[in-house]
Amino acid sequence: MTVKLNKKAYEHAKSLIRDNKFVTDSRDDWSEHAPSTQEESKFLDKNGQADYSKWYLGVDDEHREDQKGHYKFPYGDFKKIHRCAVISGESRASQNNYQDIRDALGDLLKRIDNS
Known about the structure:
alpha+beta; globular; 5 strands
């Protein structure tokens, strides 16, 4: 399994922060703020694969692009980026040695915290 940085999602996340479309929630809030599987499916059906993929900083080449499993490291709720998702993802990326994803999430966290 190779999980790589989704550069389009990274650019999308940075633009959301520039537009102040983020939530400065607490570290442990992601379990409550993360979209449910049903919400993910609804967003995907309504907006398509291209828009769906912008909300995930990692892509897994073991899964086809048309499968949800292709996308890893969600950072928001399809409306706003969530600080708690960024922190959670940064920790997971570090644990799994996904350096490029960890670095991108660290950068996003700094951008949020400095806004």
